[in-house]
Amino acid sequence: MWTRDQYFKAWDASTPNESEFLFRLNVTGSTDNNDLNGIGNLQQRDGYKEMVATKKFVDMLTSDPKDVRNDMFLPATAAKEVATYGTNKVYLNKLRGQGGNSRNVTIVPIIRLSEVYLTAAECAFRNNDKTKAVEYLNDLVKNRTTTEASLATVDNITLERILIERRKELIGEGQRYFDALRNNETITRYTSEADKGWHKTLSKDAQSFDRDYFKAIAAIPQAEINANPNIKQN
């Protein structure tokens, strides 16, 4: 597992630290690239910048200033964006490409060792083995922060605590939405202007929903249903 000192540099596609990646898409400039619509360019401050961290996430992560994952975000620089986000670090700099320059040539993680530890912690907790759950969770946490209070104990570990750590560690890797669905969580973006943060104005049903919401799972294309009438629409 990457240490605190290794974490930021490990994501550089030109010199990646392979010890953490159990399976990843090996994208190189000489053979392939993720294109302008690839995940790296969508996230990057100097790319399309179509994705930003929510204020709730920023507040959660920055509550521990010693957490190395704070270094994975960049603040806005354009005047219009600064007016919205201020000095907050909202742009994820995890999939930054080779040498930090080629946003189209990025590491695409599929499974990382950190995810395995988090999954083991969750499984142990669900199996009522809090000692093992704490052990697996703290193996990760102590490699991300030096704040002693961030370590879990048998007395305070909860499923929510483990899932929060998954949010911090796996941000931008396509895990959070499915974690919420499988745990039947209610995804609440905001409830009023007071906690709206920098969210754009959303319809009421998009502000807060769970897996029973009819749009939570993508619809099956009509062509597939036409080809097989036994398929039922989601």
Helix content: 25-40%
Number of domains: 3
Query: How many helical stretches?
Result: 10
Unreliable stretches covering 5 or more consecutive residues: none
- Shape, please? globular
Main-sheet strand order equals 1-4
Output mean pLDDT.
90
What is the string of SSEs from the N terminus onward? HEHHEHEEHHHHEHEH
Radius of gyration: 19 Å
Q: Strand pairing plus helix content: what structural class?
A: alpha+beta
Strand content: 5-15%
What profile does the largest beta sheet have? 2 strands, antiparallel
The number of distinct β-strands equals: 6
End-to-end Cα distance: 39 Å
Keywords: Cell outer membrane, Membrane, Signal
GO cellular component, one term: cell outer membrane
InterPro entries: SusD_RagB_dom, TPR-like_helical_dom_sf
Domain RagB/SusD: 85-234
What would you say this structure looks like, in words?
This is Protein containing RagB/SusD domain protein. Residues 85-234 form the RagB/SusD domain. InterPro entries: SusD_RagB_dom (IPR012944), TPR-like_helical_dom_sf (IPR011990). It is found in: Cell outer membrane. With 234 residues, the chain is α+β, with helices and mostly antiparallel strands. The protein folds into 3 domains: 4-110, no CATH class; 112-188, Serine Threonine Protein Phosphatase 5, Tetratricopeptide repeat; 189-234, no CATH class. 35% of the residues lie in helices and 9% in strands. The protein is built from 10 helices and 6 strands; from the N terminus they run H-E-H-H-E-H-E-E-H-H-H-H-E-H-E-H. The protein has a two-stranded antiparallel ribbon. Strands 2-3 form a two-stranded antiparallel ribbon. It is globular. The two termini are 39 Å apart. The model has no long low-confidence stretch (mean pLDDT 90).
